[in-house]
């Protein structure tokens, strides 16, 4: 192949952008004198995926990862095209006509179901929906009512503590973030005094990172409460503490919180361990949550004790994990929420590799690990793609302009990298005019209009 290797990446979150970065740096391609030409597509008008729409607004340090992602999308070999919806605007055959290889990095965007009675009651919410709302995702309705004085959050990971922190926090403390006015107004109207986080397993098995955990105790007016009765350490727990600095730090933080004297803050955030949710209580809407007291089995697992406790809450947020959504024209594993693959090579129903089609990130391995973990994931996928390059079927229409013509013919109002930078500047200007660093644009239509400026994206 004498021309550049053309690669289309579907999804512009960290997983997709890391894959693009690795392709531009690949030693094998460089040694062979093979340049790359990469299009990173996203169904939203904006890049960055989870970093923009999945990270809590009061986590600016995590959002700083955008600076690294920006550098990748700013490379001359990489072109960002937003507002392009694979499955609606494009099919796999279209991608194969214009790209030698296609990488899917569509992530995990929906809540894993929790199969207990009462989970469908009004007032029982999926964490993914709530996170998308407070991050002003354009596909989520702008209104949200934060009900009641007592709220339960089910889960033992970073999403659970993010949701709990936002529910407990004073809305005025979020005004130095990029939240939109509708989010601020709804959070300012809440009357929550007690947020309860329930983890099925023990303190040594919790999946919080120490940074996320510590931040719970740094909120003005909020007191973290840990019941000493929820503490238990078995042989497996002690081994985990010895083997992992993260576990050791988490346990130490929680133990210190459990033994300190109450501060008498107006709002409380309760962390409950060894509590398995068994039923959401209520008739017309959520009125409580029933949990079963658990005990450690010694090997890191837990079993029920038969002791049940009813907690009076008016809302429940389920943060028990994310799932990917099916991708048009590709096989899909409904249980794991992933595209079947072998090292990133997508597999068909007979478990044979689909030529030229790859996956990376959470849609490849499931929603496990932090944002940084997708780098190793992308490396495996890109390594296999490069190894396959001599066997790839060459795209009939690889010219970058040919793909833009296809989008134009189909009336796709796509956005570009220049358009994103225009929208980013607009959000910063909106923030400055209100004495803030930035305010997000919430509407997809407004984002597209601002990004496209005069109504026609430049080629």
The Cα radius of gyration reads: 24 Å
Low-confidence stretches: 455-459
Kindly report the average pLDDT value.
Answer: 94
The strands making up the biggest β-sheet line up spatially as 16-17-18-4-1-2-3-19
What portion of the residues fall into strands of 2 or more residues? 15-25%
Distance between the termini: 25 Å
By secondary-structure content and strand pairing, the structural class works out as alpha/beta
Domain FAD/NAD(P)-binding: 7-224
InterPro entries: FAD/NAD-bd_sf, FAD/NAD-binding_dom, Ferredox_Rdtase, Ferredox_Rdtase_adrenod
Family: Belongs to the ferredoxin--NADP reductase type 1 family.
Cofactor: FAD
Q: What would you note in describing this structure?
A:
Its EC number is 1.18.1.2. By secondary structure, the chain is α/β, with parallel strands linked by helices. The protein contains 17 helices and 19 strands. Residues 455-459 have low confidence and may be disordered.
Describe this protein with a few key phrases.
ferredoxin--NADP(+) reductase; 6-stranded parallel sheet; NADP; FAD/NAD-binding_dom; 17 helices; 33% helix; single chain; FAD; 8-stranded mixed sheet; alpha/beta; 19 strands; 459 residues; globular
